[in-house]
Hints:
Blueprint: E1 2-5, E2 15-18, E3 20-26, E4 31-37, E5 41-46, E6 49-53, H1 57-72, E7 77-82, H2 87-92, E8 100-105, H3 108-117, H4 119-122, E9 131-135, H5 138-144, E10 149-155, H6 169-178, E11 179-191, H7 196-209, E12 212-218, E13 228-234, H8 244-250, H9 261-266, H10 272-279
Parallel strand pairs: 7-8, 7-10, 8-9, 10-11
Antiparallel strand pairs: 1-2, 3-4, 4-5, 5-6, 11-13, 12-13
Helix pairs in contact: 5-6, 6-7
Amino acid sequence: MSAFKETLYEGYGQELAVEEIYFEHRTDHQHLVIFRNPVFGRVMALDGIVQTTERDEFIYHEMLAHVPILAHGAAAEVLIVGGGDGGMLREVSKHAGVRAVTQVEIDASVIEMSREYLPQHSAGAFDDPRLNLVIADGYAFVRDTEARFDVIIVDSTDPIGPGEQLFTRDFHAACKRCLRPGGIVVTQNGVVFLQTDELRETAVNFAALYADWHFYAAAVPTYVGGLMVFGFATDEPAHHRVTVSTLEERATAIATRYYTPDIHKAAFALPRYVQDVLRDL
Length: 281
């Protein structure tokens, strides 16, 4: 049995046994491989970095999708930047109040291979009539589009290769330009213990652009090194103060495996070492 060794960190990482390789190819943008691991099931990696696995993807996708949509309470137009595996689209599509979803993915091969080899991620969501799928650069899209959104979900890779520009001030400013009044943008900001710069840089950008911004966290086993943090930014402070009882009313028809209204509120309680990074900005 061969092994896949992740290359995200120098001097530290994880190794996954490879039972079978389903697909491996260098696309126009990145190296893509999908393989089977005996613990996590099917795994997708881009440029040597694990992106998603069958076994634990629900944690990441539920927290990045349901927190902003349920906090908003009336999101009708949602934009997903990235998310080619389809998991984010699956979770967004659970919300009956969402009338339209635009997804912008730079690499069509990720979508094609995920639909074939990771079908449970999208669970048919790519066939949802509410979807407008755009194959394009995410930054260029938010910079140029005339569309406006209630929630923007930035489901990016790490700030390496195609994902690097999705962590810049210019990108965050372009996202704000696309938000309707009271809109929310959420971002993935890596495993904070090992990727502190991602948290710090996003916080600086949010502070310059939004009246109210926060970070929340979840532990995703595949993303080794501790808590993964997510950015949450808006000009409407009431979204962050939404009560558990209100979230329960809004989430009644949403089937989840990780997200609950109590988890939603508790996720914003950050460890001291994370608070120290934010306080020292």
